[in-house]
Structures are given as C-alpha cells and as structure tokens.
C-alpha cells in the first residue's frame, strides 16, 4: 500500500483565469483543428468533440447531425452488419469520414469490425472501448488491430495514468481515451473505489501522449460547456460527450410522457442494469452494476445543444485571448476554487 499526496483536481475544483485579448468578437474564434496521427496515413480537420459510443448516444441519426457541424460520432457497437450496410449505402462521404467505429475486444468483435470496414473505404476511425484499459489482453488486442489495420486511426481506452497512455500508444493506438468513473451515469467510483479526478488525468495523460506524438480524448465528467473548455484547456485533444448530448431526438433512449404531457427520455450507463438487460440478458452473477439509469427532460433536436456548446467555447477563447482552439491550452491558467466556492457551485447545480 502507498499513498500519493499530490493534489488531484476535477473540473469543479478550478476556474480559468481571464487574460487580455485582442479579439473583438466571438465570431473571430476558430474552433476547427487539423490533426495528423502517429500511425494512420490520414489527417482530419474539424471540431474535436465526439458523441460517446453509448448505445443511446452514438447513433446513426446523431452522426448525421453532428457531421453537419464537422463533429465526430463514435457509433455504438450494437448495430448489426445489416444495419451498417443500409446506413453506409445511404450516407455521404462527409458523414462517413466523421464516424468512429466502436468495438470490444473479443474474437467476434474483431471479425465484426473487419466486415464493417470492408463495406466502405470512407470509414477511417476505430475505437477499441473497454471500461478497464489496464489488462494485458486489451493491450494485446490493440497490437492485433494495429497489425491488421495499419492505415486506420485507432482510439483505445479507458485509462487515467501517463504510463498506460504511453504503453497503448507504443502498442499501436493513435489516440488514448482518458477517464474512469467521471461520467454522470457511471457508478464505478462508488462500487469499486477506483478512479482519478478528470482534470488531473487529462493534464498528466496529455503530457505523456504528446511526448510520443499521440493524442488523448477526455471521456466523461463534462456536465456544462465550461467543463469542455477546461478539458481543452488542460491539454485534451478531443472531448467525448455522453450526458450533455442525451435526451434528444437523435438518441435511442426510451421516451416517457407524463400525465401532464411533459416528455422525458431514459439515459443509462453502459454498465447499468438497464444496459446489461438489453445487451447481455441481465447482470452476470460474477459482476456488479456500475451504472445507473436517469430520466432526463426531453430536449428536442441536438442541433440547438451543439450551437450552445460551440458558442460557450468561443466565449471561453475570447476571455483568454485564444484565436483558435489549439491556442486555448497555451492561454489557460487554472486557479484553484476554495471550498466555499465549490459549495456555491454545488448548490446552483441543484436548481
């Protein structure tokens, strides 16, 4: 047993200090970035926000809307080959170029992604997604996928420490997904005691990744646009969103209408009882539930939420004098928030 006494920070523990700016308007801020990847023979330009590959969020309908903003969508791994075939046949090159194919790490998963990628040359991204990215089997699978898909952009995760980011990049990942337990419907930290405050995880993992010419995705913990700005400010190259994109037309969640006509949509974690009942026939005897199901007010089209998010990011950049998203990290100075301020934030969140 050992104790690390360094302070680790989450999003609510800091604010970004404003700085002098030459920008006259939010409209001057450029949010698109161009990425060149360590292994893949492909570059991508766009706004580096990703819809999560949760089954209610990472949908084909979500991809169609987000692609119009030049954002990415990680499609959930539960679509069948037939559904993929129909979707690809009816979908433009631009949308397919902004899609990430998701997979688990079983033999069946590997065979499935081989079939999916054979359907179109416009699919360039692959996300190898597990809750615990620290297993040797996972690392071996990343190696195997890199050998078979030398020209694809491979994301792998989730982890929260610099040494594991380095191992995954050296094993063939272009991008590493960072985050264990910060999601709004994830209860891993409660059930297992495992986790890492998300902002500190981003800062440490970004440093490790960038030293090897890799990138990271901050996955989880963003509940407001300011959290997304803090993730980018801390050095994350991409930010993945789940809960902030939940409750929209483009999601696959079940809609509930109350007696007074109000609409809600169910949103649940992928280790929740709801998800396991749908996809694996229930909770196995050897595991516990590490997610919850919540009822969110129905929000209509996700388009309105995206406009709000992008507007908030542009505003952040004007406050610190960053002309583009890439500059935000260099222009960011975090200040610790005292306990009284934290209490105010928590109280406001309840309203």
Q: Could you characterize the architecture of this molecule?
A:
There is one protein chain. The chain is α/β, with parallel strands linked by helices and 351 residues long. Helix content is 37%, strand content 19%. The chain has helices spanning 60-68, 81-89, 93-97, 107-118, 136-148, 162-170, 188-192, 198-211, 225-233, 273-279, 302-320, 325-331, 339-349; strands spanning 14-16, 33-36, 43-46, 49-51, 72-75, 99-103, 125-129, 153-159, 175-178, 215-219, 238-241, 255-257, 263-268, 293-297, 334-336. The strands form four sheets. Strands 4-5-6-7-8-9-10-11 form an eight-stranded parallel beta barrel, surrounded by six helices. Helix 6 packs parallel to helix 8 and helix 11 crosses helix 12. The radius of gyration is 20 Å and the shape is globular.
Topology:
Elements: E1 14-16, E2 33-36, E3 43-46, E4 49-51, H1 60-68, E5 72-75, H2 81-89, H3 93-97, E6 99-103, H4 107-118, E7 125-129, H5 136-148, E8 153-159, H6 162-170, E9 175-178, H7 188-192, H8 198-211, E10 215-219, H9 225-233, E11 238-241, E12 255-257, E13 263-268, H10 273-279, E14 293-297, H11 302-320, H12 325-331, E15 334-336, H13 339-349
Parallel strand pairs: 4-5, 4-11, 5-6, 6-7, 7-8, 8-9, 9-10, 10-11
Antiparallel strand pairs: 1-15, 2-3, 12-13, 13-14
